[in-house]
Write a structure and sequence with these properties.
The complex is a heterodimer. Chain A is an alpha/beta fold. Helix content of chain A is about 30%, strand content about 20%. Chain A is built from 13 helices and 15 strands. In chain A, the strands form two sheets. A nine-stranded mixed sheet of chain A has the order 13-12-11-7-10-9-8-14-15. Chain B is mainly alpha-helical. Helices cover about 60% and strands about 0% of the residues of chain B. Chain B has 18 helices and no strands. In chain B, helix 12 packs antiparallel against helix 13, helix 15 (about 285-295) packs antiparallel against helix 16 and helix 16 (about 300-310) runs parallel beside helix 18 (about 330-350). The longest helix of chain B is centred in the last third of the chain and has 20 residues, at about 260-280. The N and C termini of chain B lie far apart (about 65 Å). The chains are: A alpha/beta, B mainly alpha. The interface between A and B is large, with 62 and 75 residues.
Chain lengths: ~450, ~350
């Protein structure tokens, strides 16, 4: 490159930066009450059990909205004014129910592309089944929407990487619903551990309960009002069965993937965050497990997955059932083992995190490691829509967590250890495993 | 929770089915069923969950010649047997998947990580291919194709691709071919395009795009001239994903004839194409696409233009971003400033 040219360009960049970057963004969290002009228009895709929690009714538009405990936050600030202006679900009954909750005249769609075409929508909340997360997120980015998408981020490694690329290409804010990171006890635990509270951590042991078995239910015709082909979307076609559709898809390996994805995306998200491993991955993954001998679900009843990380060296173990913490009684969580002690971080009871008192009482010493404290998971998303900063569970981090869940299931399915190349996102010397890292689409639905 | 089949009064029926299936087994495979095979198949059909599980969990040790019989059990009435058969087939397939060489079985000979499994893999694939022919049910054929998507190599592409015009199977055939590495699969997909029904052409084009099949550029360019906007847009999307440089004067789909969503995909395809040009060292063409995006009204296209231009980082690109530093749109302004800071930091290194 011509050095004179480079010098000129450098001066130009530096000069312009000094004259135009003086502006400082003031987050709405420090203001008493957001301006009405800050109103967000939300679109919702998938409004079943989880999706309904994010609806912002007309009646609450000018009122203080108390953050939902599950999403973290202190409840001491106003949520940004927001209104659910458009709703989409492939099941008419759910659509009607949500419309009633929202009030007014929200626009209703069965095809999410029609919702994404609406130019007045600022952001979308995606709470569809897992096998839809990636495509809906990518297409929302293409349409210029910021995205709050439920966890786990992706069904395959290829999908996760494509989500990251789409968010980067369009400069979109994508927050993934592993909200544990926004809950105070997880923040306390990270602050405590990152400041050496238990020394160097070499092992994190997650425990959880079993996957369900599922009744024996015969396939049937889909109910009227449910567009089953759209429910399937990019997934391989299988006959309709109520035991593996709404809400219960998560126990099927091809749709959800069992507890390691459903809850692993919470517990291992917090672990990855605390261990500062958001930009890396394991070098090996080895699963063992056993399915229910009967029942419709194929995700394993018992499962233990061991992930080895290098530089720094540490081990992450996902076990269902695992050995519960002695310090805190909870259905699931993780124990962090350091060379100077251990700390429990739970996730499960009342859908919130908890940790031990020593971490809650800890004060960061002068010069110690400062840890960002999220104001609440959705509030953090709202802040980032305005600041354009990366949210606490941005898509790159969520993709890395997804990889843990996905590789655990692949190792279980293939019944062999996987050697993982985290840079290239490929399994070493295992062609079949690599083919399972992606899943060709179906019909019109493709990455 | 109990299995209702356990209480079924017709517990003797599966045993009869096993005897019949064993006779058929010998006839269809030309090989006498071994005692172990017979016991395995009987146990897979057991109405006792633990017995069925014990069988399916060791299916990887059974002869590949049990596959035709297991396949038939995928469609029986008993739900437990269906599940057991499906799991057994999974275990058989996964037991030989690791060392598959995408370049073909012949390339695997003598590999140290392939201790004697090559023959077994070939036998399993051959059995799965056999399921595609004859009077097998749709479910059996679909199941076979899904397993072949994990094991098949260039050696088997032709045997699979000849089913691509079967209206009931074509979706699964393309799915299978899409997963088989190597140019042979891409050539088979491209060759299938002209004969395919118009309604199915977008699916084949999507597969070619997903595969980043550079050999398919000419068929995509041809398809992009289609008067059917579905086909033309599918071709444009494929080309955007393939990312191979095309010559000037390419005929893009008629923008005015596109639906609102197709218009979004149109611009997205251009951006993907531009990103690919930057990655492959052809920034000039990309720069003009990004600059066009900057001129659009929608803020996310402007952001995409800024982000793309910042990756190029030439003086011309920097100059194009500059006015956006004071954009009246919050998102555009912040994106431009972030890009600016990143470029300045890069220059300072």
């Amino acid at each position: 490159m011509d050095s004179t040219k480079q010098s000129t360009r450098r001066k130009f960049l530096a000069g312009a930066a000094s004259t135009t970057l003086g502006f400082t963004f003031v987050p709405s969290s420090v203001l008493a009450r957001p301006a009405p002009s800050d109103r967000l228009n939300l679109g919702h895709i998938g409004i079943g059990g989880r999706g309904r929690r994010f609806l912002r009714p007309l009646t609450q538009l000018n009122e203080k909205v108390v953050p939902w405990e599950n999403l973290g936050g202190q409840g001491d600030r106003y949520l940004r004014p927001a209104l659910s202006v458009a709703l989409c679900d492939v099941d008419s009954s759910r659509l009607d129910m949500a419309a009633t909750v929202v009030g007014g005249k929200p626009r209703l769609y069965k095809d999410f592309r029609r919702l994404l075409e609406q130019k007045d929508i600022d952001a979308v909340v995606i709470a569809s089944p897992d096998h839809w997360h990636a495509l809906m997120t990518i297409m929302a980015c293409q349409a210029g929407k910021d995205v709050y998408v439920e966890k786990p981020a992706a069904k395959t490694v290829e999908e996760g990487r494509a989500m990251v690329t789409a968010a980067e290409r369009y400069g979109r804010v994508v927050q993934v619903g592993s909200q544990g990171r926004s809950q105070d006890p997880a923040h306390h635990a990270k602050r405590y551990i990152n400041n050496g509270g238990i020394g160097t951590v070499r092992k994190v042991l997650c425990w959880h309960y079993e996957n369900p078995r599922g009744d024996w239910t015969a396939d049937a015709e889909p109910p009227p009002g449910l567009d089953y082909d759209k429910w399937l979307g990019p997934a391989r076609s299988i006959p309709y069965n109520e035991t593996r559709t709404h809400g219960r898809f998560r126990w099927m390996l091809d749709f959800g993937g069992g507890q390691i994805r459903d809850r692993g995306a919470h517990v291992m998200s917090v672990a990855q965050w605390i261990m500062n491993a958001d930009d890396t991955g394991p070098v090996s993954v080895e699963a063992e497990g056993e399915p229910h001998h009967g029942g419709i679900y194929d995700s394993p009843q018992h499962m233990k997955v061991t992930y080895e990380f290098k530089n720094p060296d540490w081990t992450l173990v996902w076990a269902q059932p695992g050995i519960p913490s002695e310090e805190i009684e909870a259905q699931y969580g993780a124990v962090y083992w350091g060379d100077e002690g251990r700390l429990t971080v739970t996730y499960g009871d009342r859908q919130t995190t908890d940790t031990e008192q020593k971490a809650k009482d800890f004060k960061t010493p002068y010069g110690g490691v400062d840890v960002f404290r999220s104001p609440g998971h959705f509030e953090n998303f709202e802040d980032c829509i305005k600041s354009r900063k990366k949210p606490i569970m941005h898509i790159e981090s969520a993709h890395r967590v997804s990889i843990l869940c996905i590789l655990g299931n692949i190792s279980y399915r293939l019944r062999r250890k996987l050697e993982w190349d985290a840079v290239n996102e490929r399994v070493r010397n295992d062609e079949e495993a690599n083919r399972l890292l992606s899943r060709p689409g179906r019909g019109p639905w493709h990455l | 929770m109990t299995n209702p089949e356990k209480n079924n009064a017709n517990l003797a029926v599966p045993r009869v089915a096993v005897l019949l299936s064993t006779v058929h087994y010998s006839l269809s495979t030309g090989r006498a069923a071994t005692e172990a095979d017979e016991k395995f198949l009987a146990d897979i059909e057991s109405s006792d969950e633990d017995t069925a599980y014990a069988a399916w969990s060791v299916a990887d040790r059974m002869s590949p010649e049990v596959i035709p019989q297991i396949s038939k059990l995928l469609v029986v009435e008993q739900l437990l047997t269906r599940r057991a058969a499906g799991e057994a087939l999974n275990n058989i397939v996964h037991s030989v998947g690791k060392a598959v060489n995408p370049a073909g079985f012949s390339a695997n000979s003598g590999r140290p990580d392939d201790p004697g499994k090559q023959d077994r893999r070939e036998q399993i694939v051959a059995q799965l291919l056999n399921l595609l022919d004859g009077k097998r049910t749709q479910l059996e054929k679909v199941t076979a194709l899904r397993h072949l998507s994990l094991l098949a190599t260039v050696d088997h592409v032709n045997a699979i691709a000849r089913h691509v015009q079967d209206a009931k199977l074509r979706e699964e055939v393309v799915f299978c071919l899409e997963r088989i590495p190597g140019k042979t699969a891409e050539e088979a997909l491209a060759a299938a395009l002209p004969q395919a029904e118009d309604a199915f052409k977008p699916r084949i084009l999507a597969a070619l795009g997903h595969r980043r099949a550079e050999e398919a550029v000419s068929v995509c360019l041809e398809a992009m001239r289609s008067s059917d906007p579905e086909i033309a847009m599918a071709a444009m999307k494929a080309l955007g994903r393939i990312g191979a440089r095309t010559e000037d004067g390419v005929q893009l789909p008629d923008f005015d004839a596109l639906s609102d969503w197709q218009k979004i995909e149109y611009h997205d395809s251009l951006l993907r194409y531009a990103d690919a040009q930057v990655q492959s060292g052809n920034p000039e063409e990309a720069q003009s696409i990004y600059k066009e995006a900057l001129e659009r009204e929608e803020e996310h296209w402007q952001c995409a233009g800024i982000i793309g231009l910042a990756k190029i980082g030439t003086a011309e690109a920097v100059a194009a971003i500059f006015p956006k530093l004071n954009s009246g749109t919050n998102t555009v302004r912040i994106t431009a400033r972030k890009a600016w800071r990143a470029m300045a930091a890069k220059d300072a290194v």
